């Protein structure tokens, strides 16, 4: 999920007066020095070529722990022209309207939306209608409508390739980056769809928090349509043949689900835990062990950037991603069916990225001589062995996708 930091921002600026580059500074509550932005890419047409300054009239305490002071990465979507509904009442009054299912007073407002992808923190978002904005009078250069459409497509491509950049920044090599590049059309589509879904879920969550209600399905439909329009994608057209095929597919899925329910009910008497993939068990057990042992060397009130914290978080998140990729499986079901292989591959690649993050934290621990040399050597060997097993699984899933093509 994204880092959302608009409440902690005191003031800031972004500068796109040089094409292909966005520079910026952000002053946050509780930080003496500003966070510096150095991003590749361009914002939307309304801010292209401009210097924008903004001020938060009511910043809140609580700077995000672990947000790096230097944000190197790529531009996502940056604009000050998004139209959003702004309630004319307080949040408490808004919640009361929702409880009573009554309409509430509102007006259309421009939302400042700053999104980027940094090597250190991943996706970072500032989205607000409350900031005071100050835009310079004359653009240093201009962007046409056609160029803006191409820029939005480039932003989406930046999302797809972001994991590759993170792995390289975490201590990988050019060879590792090449290995993580999609090796089939199906893999590229799976990467793009995963990035798109991450963005969609972040937008849905932000609206639910901002508007104070939980109509997930309605918001999902609206945000999905908004993304389609923003990216200049054609309106989906379903032919009668596709509709008939979809109906057949739904019928088949319903039959499969009903059969699965009957089998589950028939096996309900069994008091056995489902068998998980051994790599999930190994990685999770290892992450728990490292959490317990590393605490001995952690100082009080250490930040999320501490090398041992990076190590612990990398292993823990990798085990979660492996759980999502491998789930409850039978050895006879591996490698996965082509229908699910793309999704499995995306999660395996994310697990690999977090294992590289863990190794990067371990590299820093070596440099700072944290813990003991013997412990660090043991952790490195085990992490690299798990990483090797993940690489094998990735190769096997890629073979499935290549054969399918």
Describe this structure in words.
The protein is an alpha+beta fold and 405 residues long. Helices cover 52% and strands 17% of the residues. The chain has a nine-stranded mixed beta sheet with strand order 1-8-7-6-4-3-2-5-9. β7 (106-118) and β8 (122-128) form a beta hairpin. α3 packs parallel to α10 (338-368), α5 crosses α10 and α8 runs antiparallel to α9 (307-326). The model is unreliable at 163-177 (pLDDT under 50).
Q: Any key phrases for this structure?
A:
de novo design (two linked rop proteins), nine-stranded mixed beta sheet, 405 residues, 3 domains
Show the helix and strand layout.
Blueprint: E1 3-4, E2 9-15, E3 21-28, E4 35-40, E5 51-55, E6 70-87, H1 91-100, E7 106-118, E8 122-128, E9 132-135, H2 145-160, H3 162-169, H4 174-180, H5 185-211, H6 216-230, H7 240-266, H8 278-294, H9 307-326, H10 338-368, H11 373-404
Parallel strand pairs: 1-8, 4-6
Antiparallel strand pairs: 2-3, 2-5, 3-4, 5-9, 6-7, 7-8
Helix pairs in contact: 2-5, 3-4, 3-10, 5-6, 5-10, 8-9, 8-11, 9-10, 10-11
Summary of the model, kept short:
With 405 residues, the chain is an alpha+beta fold.
The share of residues in helices is: 40-55%
Count of alpha/pi helices? 11
Tally of extended strands?
9
User: How many separate domains?
Assistant: 3
Could you tell me the mean pLDDT?
79
Distance N to C terminus: 32 Å
> What is the N-to-C succession of helices and strands?
EEEEEEHEEEHHHHHHHHHH
Poorly predicted regions are 163-177
Using the CA coordinates, give the radius of gyration: 24 Å
In the sheet with the most strands, the strands line up as 1-8-7-6-4-3-2-5-9
* Major sheet attributes: 9 strands, mixed
Beta-strand portion reads: 15-25%
Structural class by sheet pairing and helices: alpha+beta
Silhouette: globular
């Amino acid at each position: 999920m994204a880092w959302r930091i608009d409440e902690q921002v005191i003031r800031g600026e972004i500068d796109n007066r040089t094409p292909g580059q966005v520079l910026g500074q952000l002053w946050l509550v509780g930080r003496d020095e500003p966070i510096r932005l150095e991003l590749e890419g361009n914002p939307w047409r309304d801010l292209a070529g401009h210097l924008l300054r903004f001020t938060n009239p009511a910043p809140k305490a609580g700077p995000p722990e672990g947000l790096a002071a230097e944000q190197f990465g790529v531009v996502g979507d940056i604009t000050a022209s998004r139209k959003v509904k702004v309630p004319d009442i307080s949040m408490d009054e808004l919640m009361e309207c929702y409880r009573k299912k009554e309409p509430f007073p509102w007006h259309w407002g421009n939302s400042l939306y700053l999104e980027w992808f940094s090597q250190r923190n991943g996706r970072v978002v500032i989205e607000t209608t409350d900031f005071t904005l100050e835009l310079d009078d004359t653009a240093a250069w201009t962007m046409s409508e056609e160029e803006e459409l191409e820029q939005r497509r480039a932003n989406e491509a930046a999302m797809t390739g972001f994991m590759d950049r993170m792995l390289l920044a975490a201590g990988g090599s050019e060879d590792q980056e090449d290995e993580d590049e999609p090796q089939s059309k199906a893999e590229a589509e799976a990467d793009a769809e995963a990035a798109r879904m991450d963005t969609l879920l972040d937008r849905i969550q932000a609206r639910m928090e901002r508007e104070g209600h939980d109509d997930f399905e309605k918001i999902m439909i609206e945000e999905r349509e908004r993304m389609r329009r923003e990216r200049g994608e054609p309106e989906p057209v379903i032919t009668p043949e596709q509709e008939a095929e979809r109906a057949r597919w739904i019928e088949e899925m319903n039959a499969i689900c009903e059969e699965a329910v009957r089998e589950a009910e028939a096996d309900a008497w069994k008091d056995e835990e489902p068998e998980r993939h051994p790599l999930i068990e190994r990685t999770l057990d290892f992450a728990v062990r490292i959490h317990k042992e590393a605490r001995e060397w952690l100082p009080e009130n250490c930040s999320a950037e501490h090398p041992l914290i990076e190590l612990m978080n990398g292993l823990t998140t990798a085990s979660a991603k492996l759980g999502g990729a491998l789930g409850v499986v039978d050895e006879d079901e591996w490698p996965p069916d082509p229908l699910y292989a793309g999704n499995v591959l995306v999660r395996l690649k994310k697990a690999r990225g977090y294992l590289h993050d863990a190794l990067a934290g371990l590299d820093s621990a070596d440099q700072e001589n944290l813990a003991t040399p013997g412990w660090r050597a043991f952790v490195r060997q085990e992490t690299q062995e798990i990483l090797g097993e993940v690489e094998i699984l990735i190769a096997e899933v890629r073979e499935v996708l290549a054969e399918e093509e």
